[in-house]
Amino acid sequence: MNLLERLNQDMKNAMKNKEKDRLSVIRMVKSSLQNEQFKLGRELTDDDSLTVLNRELKQRKDSLHEFEQANREDLASKLRAELAVLVDYMPEQLSEEEVSKIVQDAIAEVGASTKADMGKVMGAVMPKVKGKADGGLVNRLVQQHLS
Q: Could you list the residue ranges that cross the membrane (predicted)?
């Protein structure tokens, strides 16, 4: 079952169970996916869907950080609930050890030795961990391994 089909099914369940917050998030994600599909002018691949989900997740994480800094707990708690719904649709996240192994392999693959080679390493790692690891974690691990 692709993501759009799963969202449609979950949307029906959320309506039946009167889960307004969950329904709202599902509708937002579905709308983003449909907008992306219209923009690309073709059916979305799993990779395209994952990109849209990552974008939605990142937007909410950034907003959450801003709300927490502004001491807006009312808005922050709403975003935490939205994040929890979005995480359900993401692939299982890699552990830090797994990401570290991928980073080490990429460093060897591109022959990187200094922090100046960080861009090459990130370019090799990110497609392998797309949707399965946070970019901040990857960045931190690449810096650790190159220093």
A: none
- Report the distance separating Cα 98 and Cα 114, nearest Å: 22
Per-residue confidence (pLDDT) for residue 66, from 0 to 100: 92
Residues counted in the chain: 147
Whether residue 31 is predicted with pLDDT greater than 80 in this model: the reply is: yes
User: In the CATH hierarchy, which fold is given to the domain comprising 96-146?
Assistant: Arc Repressor Mutant, subunit A (1.10.10)
For 108-119, what is each residue's pLDDT tens digit? 888 877 788 888
Do 29 and 7 touch, CB atoms closer than 8 A? yes
Domain 3-87 is of which CATH architecture?
Orthogonal Bundle (1.10)
Neighbouring CB atoms inside 10 A of 96's CB total 12
Q: What is the dihedral sign for C-alpha 61, 62, 68, 74?
A: negative
Predicted TM-score (pTM) of this structure:
0.73
The ranges assigned to domains in the chain are 3-87, 96-146
Q: Count the neighbouring beta carbons within 10 Å of the beta carbon of residue 91.
A: 11
Helix, strand, coil percent values for the chain (each to nearest 5)? 80, 0, 20
